[in-house]
Protein: histidine kinase
Amino acid sequence: MTTTGEERAAAVSGPWWWARWRGALFDGSLALASAAECAAEGVPFARDAGVPLAAGVLFGLLCGSVLLVRRRWPIAVVLVAIAVTPAQMGFLMGIVGLYTLATCELPRRIIGALAGMSLLGTMIVTFVRVRQDMARGDFTIGDWFVPFAAVTTSLGLTAPPLLLGLYVGARRRLMESLRERADSLERELQLLAERAEERAEWARGEERTRIAREMHDVVAHRVSLMVVHAAALQAVARKDPEKAVRNAALVGDMGRQALTELREMLGVLRSGEAPERPAPLRDPAALPLVAVGVAAAAAASRAAGEPGGDGPCLAELEELVGQSAAAGMVVDLSVEGEARPYGAEIEQTAYRVVQEALTNVHKHAAGAKTRVRLAHRGAEIAMQVENGPPPEPATASAAGLPSGGNGLLGMKERVVALGGVFVSGPTDAGGFRVSAVIPA
Structure:
């Protein structure tokens, strides 16, 4: 795992400006070594300058100990090293100071200027010292050795620490950049994971809503018709026993068909396999009365990958209206404009709106005259289902039809999800109207 910036900041436990105790101990060791070197070099300096040895040693100790603050003030360390160059002391301080200066994030012109001053100072001091030694007879080499020694000595004391410091500083900045980038990527991954979890939760909620809506569309219409026919069966049981027997058989077949469809849908939810098409009813004459539920079952089968399309389509709308009419509803269908194919989701939504509206008529206004209008327009498709007041208001309530209150909400969600407009409400004549417009 990568270490974030907050964790690195929390890991800083050293004193003062040091990030760690080992850094402080290392700098302290360098300062002690530099102070010892400068103190030893202070003895010949004191003799040449004609000052007491103690003063030269103390001066060397003070100058060498400046290396302790090399991480805090590297420019001050380099300036002190340049200042004591004529006294021929502070070689370790100058090397370490240049290295530290090159590793810092300072402008290159400042680093170059201080390095040039150090190079020039070392070169002049070396040139003078070597020339003096040759004048005293300590060296018998030719005059060419003086500039050679001055140049090589100054370059040897300046170039290696400077180049090494530039390399280490660049590498350090690169590693810091990579760490920051890794931290940024880690934070982005965490945000993406959180957003993915939120999207997954949202998708699960949407899927639950979609499954509930599909189950409502597939089963509700058929069960509503069963309740209506069961109520009618009570009325004709004594007057026409043969008709009552036929109606009872019809209700039984409708119930079995509804259970079959419900079992298939629940099986799909458990295993993810495609449902089989339900078995046909025993009585072919009962097909017109229960075809509304059959259409919903066919939609589920087609959605599962069976032949016949991707779901109910507008071409089946006339059949749906005819089946409701065969079930006893007075319903009229009118189509305006030139019919044309639409997207599968648009046609399925339009079909479901009409189906749910007809189901509500069966539930709440049995026997009411109903009009279904479908209009094909240039950039949209519009549908309207309007029913008048029921001839006997007590019929629906006597049938005991339950209502979950989600039918209109489900229709509105379907239409709005496609960018359409959905309006429903009572009419002035005492009926109810459902209107929807879906962009094509």
